[in-house]
Specification:
By secondary structure, the protein is of the alpha/beta class. It contains 20 helices and 29 strands. A 7-stranded parallel sheet has the order 10-11-9-12-13-8-14, with helices on both faces. It has a 6-stranded parallel sheet with strand order 15-25-24-16-23-22, sandwiched between helices.
Length: about 700
C-alpha cells in the first residue's frame, strides 16, 4: 500500500493523506472522499508509511485516478501563488481550473478534441464557432485538412505585415523565444501597431506547435480581440473568463492539458490555467489595474504571468502605451528588456494636447463644457469627424442631497453616496451594486425633496444633446456594453461614422479602435488626481494617455482638450509636452522618497466584521501580537470606505524591501492571532491602494 499527500480542490490549506494500491506520480489528478463528498484533488507527494503517526486503518483510499496530470511547474506556480498571496492551497488549485468546473464529470471524452483532430465536420464547426460557408473557405485555402482520423487545422496563414520599426523589434526578440525564459516590454505609443507585432510572435509559436496565452484587462475586450485574431489567422482562439459556461471551460481544459497547440485569450484568471506546452505569454495593457483581483483571492495577473513564464521557460511579452512604474522599475534594474515603438502605424503624428484653465471659465449648475471646447467640437463635427467626451463617472449624478437639511443619500450596506442613474430611474451603490427606488425619504428630516449634485455620463449627455442638436450621441461605458446585440450595433454605427459624438468612461481607453475619431474632450481632468490612492497621479497619467491615444488613429493628427483647475500641475505639463520619461523620473523619485512601491513591498491587513465591538477586539489583538513579535506595523486606520457590504473595515499595513521578509512577517503575525479571528482577516499583497 502506498500513501500520498493530496490537496482537494476546496477551501483548505493543508494536504490530506490517502492511500492507494498503486504508485502515483506527483501532479496526478485523483478523486477522493472528503466528509462524504466526492472531490477532485491533486497528488503533491508520496509519504513513507513510517512517517504516519496515526492509525493507518483510518486512512481512506483514493476513489479513482483521473486521466490528467498537472505538470510539476504548474504545481510549483500554484504553490507560490498560495504562499505569496495567502490564498488557501486547495482554493488556489480550484481557481486554476475554473472554480465551477467539476473535473470528475467533465474530463472524460478528452480524446475528442485532442491535437485539433475532430471526428467530423459538424464537431469542428461547432467547436470553433464557424459557419459552413467559413468552413468551406478555410478548407479551400488549405487551412483545414482532412486526415484518416478526421479534420484538423493546418498551420495558420501568416499575412501579418510589419513596418521597419516593428520588424526590427521582432528580429531582436525572436531568438530568445523558445530556448529559455525571457521577459520583454513593448512600450509603444497608442496606434503604433503593438498588437500586429505580438501577433507575429503568436504565429511563430503556433508554427512550432506550442500553446499561447493572451491576457486582456477586461472581459469586454475579448470579443473584439478575437475578431482581429480571426482576421489574421482564419480561426477563433479559445476564450476564457468568468462568463463562460462550465462545458466551454471543460473543453478548453481538455485541450490545454493534452498539450494541443492553441491560443487562449482571457481576463486575469486565465493566467492560472494548467498549460502543458506553454511557450508564449502576452499581457496586453499591462499597466491596467484590472489585472489585480480585489475581491476573493487577491492576486496580480501581470506579476503571475511573469512568474509563470519563468517556471515554464517561456517568453513573456508585456505590452503597453503607458507602462506601470513597477515594470519600468524592473526595466531600469535589467530584469525586463524594453523595446520602444515611437511612431504610429499609419504614420500620423501624435495627438495635439491642449489644456483649458477652468479658473477662467465659470460654469453654471447645468453646464460643464467651456467655450473653447464647444467651438472646437463644432468645427470637428462640421468636417465630418467624430468627437469623444470623456468623463470617468457613470450614471447621472454622483450625489443626491436633501433640499431641507442638506444630508446626502447613502447606501444602507456601504458608507458611500448613491449614484443616480436617470436611464433606469434608480439609485445604485457602485460598491455593492444594491439598487434603490428614486423616491427616497430623508432619514434626517423626512423630506421628500432632493436635488442632484455633480455630473455623470447621463447628465453630460443631456448637455451635449442640447449644445449639438442634430448629431447622433451615444454613451460608451460598462453599463452600455453588457448587451451583446447592442454592443454589436454600437460598433457598426461607430465604424460607419453614424454616431458622431461618443460619451465615454474609462473603458474607452482600453484598446478600442475608433478610426474616425478626431477630437477627445476630457471634461474633468482633476477628478482622480487628488484621491487618497498613492498611485493616483500614475493612474491619471496612464488613463489620459490611453484616452488621448484614441484620437487621430488613421489619416490625420487628432486633438485633445483637457479641462482642469490645476493647470500648473506637473502631470498636465508632462501630458502637454508628451514627455513620458520626465514624468516617469519624477514619479519614481517621489515614490522612492516616500518609501512606496516599487521601492518597497506593501502588505495590507484588512479586518472586516459586522460588529464594531468585535472588530475593535480583533484590532487590539493584532496590535498586541505585533508588539510581542517586534513587527513594525502601521495602523489601525479606517478603510477609505469604512462600512462596505454590511461590514466595518479597519486596515493595517506593513512595508518591507523584499517580498520574502514581508511574507515571513505577515505569516508570523497571522499565525499568532486567535484562530477564530483569522477568518475576519483579509490579506492583500501589492494592493492597488492602501487607503
Amino acid at each position: 500500500m502506498y500513501y500520498f499527500k493530496i490537496i482537494p480542490f476546496a477551501l483548505i490549506d493543508r494536504p490530506l493523506i490517502y492511500k492507494c494500491k498503486e504508485k502515483i506520480k506527483r501532479g496526478r489528478i485523483v478523486e477522493i472522499s472528503v466528509r462524504k463528498k466526492e472531490l477532485a484533488g491533486v497528488v503533491l507527494s508520496e509519504i513513507a508509511s513510517s512517517e504516519i503517526t496515526f492509525d493507518k486503518k483510518k486512512i481512506l483510499e483514493i476513489s479513482k485516478l483521473n486521466l490528467y496530470s498537472f505538470k510539476s511547474t504548474h504545481i510549483e506556480f500554484i504553490e507560490y501563488l498560495s504562499r505569496h498571496y495567502f490564498i488557501e492551497l486547495g482554493m488556489s488549485f480550484k481557481i486554476s481550473i475554473g472554480s465551477d468546473v467539476n473535473l470528475k464529470k467533465q474530463l472524460k471524452n478528452y480524446l475528442l478534441f485532442n491535437h485539433h483532430i475532430y471526428e467530423n465536420k459538424k464537431i469542428l464547426i461547432g467547436h470553433n464557432k464557424l459557419s459552413p460557408k467559413k468552413f468551406l473557405a478555410l478548407q479551400n485555402e488549405k487551412q483545414i485538412v482532412e486526415t484518416d482520423l478526421g479534420f484538423k487545422f493546418y498551420n495558420k496563414k501568416d499575412n501579418i505585415e510589419l513596418n521597419n520599426e516593428q520588424d526590427a523589434i521582432f528580429q531582436k526578440i525572436k531568438d530568445d523565444s523558445y530556448l529559455k525564459y525571457s521577459c520583454h516590454l513593448i512600450n509603444g505609443v497608442t496606434g503604433s501597431g503593438k498588437t500586429e507585432l505580438y501577433f507575429k510572435f503568436i504565429y511563430q509559436a503556433l508554427n512550432n506547435n506550442k500553446q499561447v496565452l493572451v491576457l486582456l484587462p477586461e472581459i469586454a475586450l475579448t470579443e473584439d480581440w478575437s475578431k482581429r485574431f480571426d482576421k489574421y489567422f482564419g480561426c477563433s482562439p479559445y476564450v476564457w473568463h468568468s462568463k463562460q459556461t462550465v462545458s466551454q471551460k471543460a473543453r478548453i481544459l481538455k485541450s490545454l492539458m493534452s498539450g494541443e497547440p492553441c491560443v487562449v485569450v482571457g481576463a486575469r484568471s486565465a493566467v492560472l490555467l494548467p498549460f502543458q506546452n506553454l511557450k508564449l505569454i502576452i499581457c496586453d495593457e499591462e499597466h491596467d489595474s484590472s489585472y489585480k483581483q480585489d475581491d476573493g483571492p487577491k492576486y496580480h495577473a501581470r506579476d503571475m504571468s511573469i512568474l509563470k513564464a519563468s517556471k515554464e521557460k517561456a517568453m513573456c511579452l508585456l505590452v503597453s502605451a503607458s507602462p506601470s512604474l513597477e515594470t519600468l522599475y524592473n526595466v531600469k534594474n535589467n530584469k525586463i528588456n524594453q523595446y520602444e515603438l515611437n511612431s504610429q502605424f499609419f504614420k500620423t503624428s501624435l495627438p495635439n494636447i491642449k489644456l483649458i484653465d477652468m479658473n477662467k471659465f465659470k460654469p453654471s449648475s447645468t453646464s460643464w463644457i467651456s467655450k473653447t471646447m464647444f467651438e472646437k467640437t463644432k468645427a470637428v463635427l462640421k468636417n465630418e469627424g467624430q468627437v469623444l467626451f470623456f468623463l470617468n463617472r457613470r450614471g447621472y449624478a454622483p450625489t443626491k442631497m436633501c433640499v431641507q437639511c442638506h444630508s446626502v443619500v447613502q447606501c444602507k450596506n456601504c458608507s458611500t453616496n448613491l449614484v443616480y442613474h436617470k436611464s433606469i430611474g434608480r439609485l445604485i451603490c457602485h460598491h455593492c451594486a444594491k439598487m434603490y427606488e428614486n423616491n427616497q425619504i430623508c432619514m434626517q428630516c423626512s423630506s421628500s425633496k432632493f436635488i442632484s449634485l455633480g455630473i455623470g455620463l447621463e447628465r453630460l449627455q443631456e448637455e451635449v444633446i442640447r449644445l449639438f442638436s442634430g448629431y447622433k450621441v451615444q454613451i460608451f461605458s460598462s453599463d452600455t456594453l453588457r448587451n451583446k446585440k447592442n454592443k454589436k450595433i454600437f460598433f457598426e454605427e461607430v465604424h460607419q461614422n453614424q454616431i458622431k459624438i461618443l460619451i465615454g468612461s474609462q473603458i474607452v481607453g482600453k484598446s478600442f479602435h475608433f478610426p474616425n475619431l478626431k477630437l477627445v474632450n476630457i471634461i474633468d481632468g482633476d477628478s482622480t488626481l487628488h484621491s487618497p490612492d498613492f498611485r493616483a497621479i500614475e493612474k491619471t497619467y496612464q488613463l489620459f494617455q490611453q484616452v488621448a491615444g484614441r484620437s487621430g488613429r488613421e489619416g490625420s493628427q487628432g486633438d485633445v482638450l483637457i479641462q482642469t483647475y490645476n493647470i500648473a500641475h506637473p502631470l498636465f505639463q508632462s501630458l502637454m509636452d508628451q514627455d513620458r520619461n520626465l514624468f516617469i523620473e519624477k514619479e519614481l523619485y517621489r515614490r522612492e522618497q516616500s518609501a512606496l512601491p516599487p521601492y518597497f513591498k506593501i502588505g495590507v491587513l484588512n479586518i472586516l466584521h459586522k460588529n464594531q465591538s468585535d472588530l475593535r477586539n480583533i484590532t487590539l489583538d493584532i496590535l498586541q501580537k505585533s508588539k510581542d513579535l517586534s513587527i513594525n506595523i502601521y495602523g489601525p486606520t479606517p478603510a477609505l470606505i469604512p462600512y462596505k457590504k454590511s461590514h466595518f473595515h479597519q486596515i493595517f499595513f506593513l512595508k518591507e524591501k523584499s517580498y520574502k521578509e514581508l511574507e515571513w512577517k505577515i505569516s508570523q503575525l497571522r499565525s499568532s492571532i486567535n484562530p477564530k479571528n483569522q477568518r475576519f482577516l483579509s490579506i492583500d499583497i501589492d494592493p492597488i491602494s492602501i487607503s
